[in-house]
Amino acid sequence: MKRKMRLYSYLSNILVICLYATQLSSGYFTAYEAQENDKNCFCELRGSINDCSCDVDTVDHFNNIKIYPRLKSLLVKNYFRFYKVNLNRKCPFWPQDSKCAIRFCQVENCEEQNIPKGLIEPTKHHHSNGEPLGAAYKYTKEAQEPACSDADDFNSILGFLDTSISDQAHKEFELWAKHDEAEEDFCIMDDNQEDAQYVDLLINPERYTGYKGDSAHRVWKSIYLENCFDTQNQSNSLPDYIAHLDLRNLCLEQRAFYRIISGLHTSINIHLCAKYLLSESKDFLDPQGIWGPNINEFKRRFSPETTNDEGPHWLRNLYFIYLVELRALAKAAPYFKKEEYYTGIVEEDEETKMAIKDLLSVIESFPSHFDEHALFSSSREGIKFKREFKEKFRNISEIMDCVGCDKCKVWGKLQTQGLGTALKILYSEKLNQATVSGLWQKPNVEGDHIFRLTRPEIVALFNAFGRLSNSIFEMENFRKYLR
């Protein structure tokens, strides 16, 4: 009897321990589920970001805690929400026969009365090369005062010298100056063209519009096949021509170009998955539909099973392009701190300047910035690669005119221009010259910038970086869903 009691007691204790252990592990099948979750959570990237000195976890924490919240509040400011772009340029590479007719492809018009006057008023003041001084001039003391007699005397003295220079020569000087500046551009600029219009980015968010099929496929196929350095793989199959390739056989410059384009493509795809049209609303009062994350679409685009094991490589390339643009902002931080971000709304303009300085101070504190000096050595081969980089990237910026969905085109052109601006900053001899000469330490350099960015370039760069930051933030959300 005692023996049976001891056995009963022993079995009871084991049962209690098992039940307790089951509670701690949240269920009998926990071990199996954990294995499945590890397998399914392919976006749980670990380790170093190839060709960079930091790892994924470092970027995740830095972006999600420090950068993303600041950018989210900054990019709703008037200076950054209105982007000027030409949506009427014809595709220069093939007949544009597939205009998207889906209502979510259309760009909502921006009423002129909603655009801050400081963004659309023409300025009367110009640099010596004929370029506008910019809206920041309106804040200066000189802009508020009538011209004084000393200035008139000074102009009359110079007038004698100017008489020996013909109008035609002046025009040629302006063309030379513009040519010199264009030499540093990685993008084709279209904001000054007659058909250019302002788009309110807040009422035209980047999200899935339903634009897909042959037209969208042809755009990306053209970008990868005709502009990436590797041309051996000419397959028409999407997973083939954007495959990871054997990057070890490419030099650093070629590898970097491919990873930048792949990272941009990845970022755009994450945005589409994060803001997917889950159901179309039938309510006349709320016609926008229901938008949210589509887990199955994310898995389809990035899981190893559906991408021939390439998806995790594409996700890692997102971090690479993020570090490239992060470094550009850090390098040009002294320049950006001197910008006025003028819209004519004085209180908000001051808030924007303070927010920019706060963001830049955080960006400058990042410990493992991308090293742009690793690319494009001073050798003949390095100079050749730099020229090819520009040519290919300018070509890609023109391919964006072939996108058949207007809303997709806005965000495609913006992110391409933002990336082009980042590359311009990283490899601008004029910016290096200004930094070495100590120009940024001078109290006022507005009237004679050695290095200048236009407002559309600044707006595109910060918004493009905001898109990358948002993608990394959304990656964390997808990890939670997949777990």
From TrEMBL:
Major location (coarse): endoplasmic reticulum
Alphabetical keyword list: Disulfide bond, Electron transport, Endoplasmic reticulum, FAD, Flavoprotein, Glycoprotein, Membrane, Oxidoreductase, Redox-active center, Signal, Transport
Binding-site positions, FAD: 207, 209, 220, 262, 265, 301
SS bonds (residue pairs): 100-105, 148-187, 405-408
Topology with respect to the bilayer: Peripheral membrane protein
Cofactor(s) required for function per UniProt: FAD
Top-level taxonomic group: Eukaryota
Gene Ontology molecular functions: FAD binding; protein-disulfide reductase activity; thiol oxidase activity
Residues annotated as signal peptide: 1-27
Active site: 405 (nucleophile), 408
Subcellular location: Endoplasmic reticulum membrane
GO cellular component: endoplasmic reticulum membrane
GO-annotated biological processes: protein folding in endoplasmic reticulum
Pfam families, sorted: ERO1
Family under the similarity heading: Belongs to the EROs family.
Quaternary organization: May function both as a monomer and a homodimer.
Name this polypeptide is given: Ero1-like protein
